[in-house]
Amino acid sequence: MTIQAYFDTIKAKTGLDPDDFRAAAAAKGLLGPDVKTASIVAWLKEDYGLGTGHAMAIVSALGQVSGQRLPVDEKINAQFGGAKAHWRGTYDALVSHARESGEVNLAPTNSYISLLKGMKKFAIVQVTAGRLDLGLKLPGVEGADALEASGSWNSMVAHRLRLAEPADLTAEVLDWLRLAYEAA
Q1: For residue 89, what are the contacts with CB-CB under 8 A and spacing of at least 6?
Q2: Between β-strands 132-136 and 113-117, what pairing exists: parallel, antiparallel or unpaired?
Q3: How far apart are alpha carbons 136 and 122 in whole angstroms?
Q4: How far is 80 from 89, CA to CA, in rounded Å?
Q5: Cα–Cα distance, 61 to 158 (Å, whole number)
Q6: Shortest CA distance to 97 belongs to which of 25, 1, 11, 174?
Q7: Contact 18, 4 (CB under 8 A)
Q8: CA distances (Å), 154 to each of 42, 92, 124, 180, in order?
């Protein structure tokens, strides 16, 4: 989703554009170098019912927030640059499949992308040139041979699936992803 698509969706939902949010944020004292991004996101969620991605688009538009992050879509795109580009289709297929179960929010960091059901993380995706790792939050679940304990790889999830090539995205992997979504 482009930043403009976020703004269009927000306008359709709230009737407000980025300039309206800038004025409202200023009126609430939510502009300036001491304002935390989390404070603005919480306000946008509570007062306007925005999801994390849409709230972050507004944070981006405010432009004066200390520690401001790139918009979600730009941060995700950055994860698939260069030698990792061939994993983008696999990632998109994972997210599309997860969204068949319900709403999925994306929360990228500099090294991986969290998949959230509401505010609950149910999976993470991390890509390298040679592999896509899918971490699943399935505590207490003993899996088939494909599931391994996440160990020290990432403590936010219980299991890890290593995909060595895009063709490794099988129906079994998608079933595990669905189970993680349902468990969240």
Answers
A1: 166
A2: unpaired
A3: 6
A4: 10
A5: 36
A6: 174
A7: no
A8: 26, 22, 9, 16
Vertex 92, ends 102 and 112: CA angle to 5°?
Answer: 95
pLDDT digits (tens, 9 = 90+) for 111-152: 899 999 988 899 999 999 999 999 999 877 776 566 777 877
SS3 5: helix
What are 11-41's pLDDT values in tens digits?
Answer: 999 999 888 888 898 888 888 777 888 899 9
> Which ranges in the chain belong to alpha helices (H)?
3-14, 18-27, 37-48, 52-62, 72-78, 88-99, 171-183
What number of other Cβ atoms are within 10 A of residue 8's Cβ? Answer: 13
Output the CA torsion sign for 47, 52, 58, 60.
positive
The answer to whether the CB of 133 falls within 8 A of the CB of 163 is yes
Contact 40, 55 (CB under 8 A): yes
Rounded CA gap, 21 and 136, in Å?
36
Mean pLDDT of 65-94: 82
